[in-house]
Design goal:
Elements lengths: L3 E8 L3 E3 L12 H11 L4 E5 H8 L2 H4 L7 H12 L1 E5 L11 E4 L3 H10 L5 E4 L2 H9 L5 E7 L7 E2 L10 E8 L5 E7 L2
Parallel strand pairs: 1-6, 1-7, 3-4, 3-6, 4-5
Antiparallel strand pairs: 2-8, 7-10, 9-10
């Protein structure tokens, strides 16, 4: 069965964005881009909430064509074009969207159906509201967290309204030179 893995930058105090969705505190560099690029190349499905999907869609389809595009932009743009996109949204329709599925209801049934299909990891990128919905239905199988060396004090938390404890097993860590620490967890039964 395929696994749903939440990929998220997080502050030391557990926030994924500032109070107004700010992400200007997130540290990324070529070392992180290279590491992430290798890992996501194994995934063939990206899951987003509507807001994150629209943000990604406004940039990645043409990022490789921009003057001065970085190696990361070129590689990620190619990956983004090929990967199947799943969007959790009650307002969007998939009419006219390429390689994209919209899930607007029956979240648990629809995600479990995708998990039964052949393929690699289903990567949830950012999308805190979508992640919260997936938590409520116990649909996340692992967390790929990039802990940034900052305490925000307030913002949008990664974990909210958790009904039952979620036991995790740490499978790897990595320290990046910019101060970010990767924590890679899987859920325990």
């Amino acid at each position: 069965m395929r696994k749903v893995i939440s990929f998220m930058h997080i502050s030391l105090d557990g926030f994924v964005a500032g109070p107004n969705g700010e992400m200007d505190w997130i540290k990324v560099d070529e070392e992180i881009f290279d590491h992430v690029g290798k890992r996501i190349s194994k995934g063939d499905t990206a899951l987003y909430g509507r807001v994150t999907y629209q943000m990604m869609e406004s940039y990645w389809p043409t990022a490789a064509d921009q003057p001065g595009a970085s190696r990361h932009d070129i590689e990620h743009s190619k990956w983004y074009a090929q990967v199947h996109k799943v969007v959790l949204s009650k307002t969007m329709t998939d009419a006219g969207l390429t390689n994209t599925t919209i899930i607007s209801d029956n979240l648990s049934d629809n995600i479990n159906e995708i998990k039964q299909q052949p393929g690699g990891e289903i990567l949830v990128f950012g999308s805190p509201k979508a992640t919260h919905s997936l938590h409520q239905h116990n649909l996340i199988d692992g967390y790929w967290l990039f802990v940034n060396p900052i305490i925000l004090g307030q913002g949008i938390p990664l974990f909210t309204d958790i009904k039952d404890k979620i036991k995790l097993k740490l499978i790897s860590t990595r320290q990046f030179t910019c101060g970010v620490t990767e924590l890679n967890y899987i859920t325990c039964e």
